[in-house]
Amino acid sequence: MLRTALRRARPASSVAPRRGIASGQNLLQLSTSDLQPARTWDAAEADGFAGTSLQQLFQGRKVVLFALPGAFTGVCEKGHVPSFAKLVNEFQQKGVDEVVCLAINDPYCMNGWAKAMQTKGISFYADADESFTRAVSETRDCTADALGPGVRSNRYACVVEDGVVGACFVEAGPGDLTVSDGATLLKAL
């Protein structure tokens, strides 16, 4: 009761501004573990479980990055990935080197999902230890959405040129797909 009263008494101006991935942010300056490319266990074992560094992914390149709460989930599978898959050629015509889908999953799950989605031209990566998602302050507790226990990524899309975030669109909730779809990002390029 006291906590509720204090919450009500707090002036609106004391609400912290939204933190998270934003235009102008240099992703090459983040301290994170490598992202894991989607692949089978055998392929990962063969390459020594090597990841892809942010420098490898972004330095000197133009990359479309879209992140989502998880593989094999409703909006992600039925809306978000298809919205980019159908526009891969258009992104390439705008000088994009790679279209990347990122989720907090393991790389083997992401590999299975990529195969199930049958998409062409999208690279699937796992933020298996959540370090990238935490570094860009886009973590979200999706336990109530049956995606937990644990942390998931918020849904967003951005273009990253030489490590610097350009146009960037972040959804308000995990089930939303109003601003982070492929068509919206393509228009912003």
TrEMBL record:
The active site is at C76 (cysteine sulfenic acid (-soh) intermediate). CDD domains: PRX5_like. PROSITE patterns: THIOREDOXIN_2. The keyword Aminoacyl-tRNA synthetase does not apply. Pfam families: Redoxin. Gene3D superfamilies: Glutaredoxin (3.40.30.10). Keywords: Antioxidant, Oxidoreductase, Peroxidase, Redox-active center. PANTHER family: PEROXIREDOXIN, PEROXIREDOXIN-2F, MITOCHONDRIAL. Thiol-specific peroxidase that catalyzes the reduction of hydrogen peroxide and organic hydroperoxides to water and alcohols, respectively. Plays a role in cell protection against oxidative stress by detoxifying peroxides. This is Thioredoxin domain-containing protein. It comes from Pelagomonas calceolata.
